[in-house]
Amino acid sequence: MHENSVMAVDLSVVIVNHNHRGVIEKCFASLFSLPDHATFEVALIDNTSADGTADWVAAHYPQLVIRRNRAPLGFAANANAGLRTLNRGRYALLLNPDVIAIPGLLDRLVAFMDAHPRAGIAAPQLFNDDGAIQPNCRRFPTLSALAMRALRVDEVWKSPRVRRYLMENERSGPSQVDWVTGALLIARRAAIEAVGGLDERYFLYWEDLDWCYRMRQAGWSVYHVPDARAIHSQRREGVRRPFSRAGREQVLGAIRFFCKFGWNVGRAA
Prior knowledge:
Elements: E1 9-17, H1 21-32, E2 40-46, H2 53-60, E3 65-68, H3 75-85, E4 89-95, E5 99-101, H4 105-115, E6 119-127, E7 133-134, E8 137-138, H5 143-150, H6 160-166, E9 175-176, E10 179-180, E11 184-188, H7 189-195, H8 207-217, E12 221-232, H9 237-240, H10 245-261, H11 265-268
Parallel strand pairs: 1-2, 1-4, 2-3, 6-12
Antiparallel strand pairs: 4-11, 5-12, 6-7, 6-11, 8-10, 9-12
């Protein structure tokens, strides 16, 4: 249920869009048709799209706040702009435009955060388009696990180190994890105020890992909540096309993260 008054709402939903017209219609249809009772406001940060997405959203969802960039910015900078734009939500929700919400998603995330006051960030269980579980919670990385992922060794054989990194063991209930991916996560306002927003020095990738790491350093917990669910059309472009802009940002983000926090982050955790 969308709340359009000046009163406080449960969630401030931030969606960063860059030429996602092909998927964002399904995303919005799923979000605004949820039977959930959680109230929310939405901001679309349009990152210089050329496919008419912002105009389509303005025509079909006039209650939304739309910010149109004059120049392209990184995901972290765009997400932070959305967090600053919306301030009525008790919690913030980062939502990728290629996500389809499953009924109960918002209510279960809000209820979990209400029941766990030291939870700084939580994420639902994500699924691929074919219904397979999509790993979206991880341990802090080791260089060996990252190398296997970068070389795509994990597509033919997942070593114990990669399985440990991806946390592929079944979890029947909410559990504390090291970090969750930024495709869809809920964050507590007090935790954001304590540690700050996403680090804008990352252009694409690694900003979610960095955010969770800082949350953990400041004493907040990060959780995976499997009874809240959504579908995510994951592309992994940085892995599939290592010489693309996304691939370069994947490498640069890793270097920035390890230089910032040390090269033994995964082993220390």
